[in-house]
Input
Amino acid sequence: MIVALRLLPREEIFFDLFNQAADNILAAARLLRDLMDDYRDVERRAGAIKALEDRGDEITHEIIDRLNRTFVVPLDREDIFALAKQLDDVVDWIEASSARMAVYRIPHSTPEARELAHIIVSECEAIVEAVRNLRRLDRIDAAVHEINRLENLADHVQRDAIAGLFADEGNPIEVIKWKEVYETLEEATDQGEHVAHVLQGIHAKNM
Output
């Protein structure tokens, strides 16, 4: 019993770290949205997003390190690892989106890029809500459904944006650049949907 009492508080750190990871991806998403809405000082602001991506790596490494050192864990080990990795993948693709805007020297945003960035923020808000309810899995369904809905919406926006590029843009280099930007933005929402899939699996195992 004494051993159990010593171990139980250590379980809680995983929930805290997952909350930190979710909050971090939302902060990165909001910076990306702000960049797309107010498109200036791109390299510096992309650098701020990169700093959050680095922070995401640190949180992921801490989760994995604690997973390897903790005897009693609150969820299946493979689920803890999968959720940590998937949250990190979301912030990776958010950072990749801003990096492409900077590296490709893109001079302006577009309505489609702004819409995708706003969808990413909404999806990350739903991820934060779902992750905060990991202790009460009966409460995650609405957030998971919202994540899936937003990914589907982003997919439609991206396809329409790329179709518009080929219809309207005469410069093939610009088509290539923007096609990759749109695909990267949409991939961030795909990674968010993968978070939802991991959460659904956790829910199925523990309810």
Notes: The longest helix spans residues 2-37. The helical segments are 2-37, 42-69, 77-103, 111-132, 141-168, 172-206.
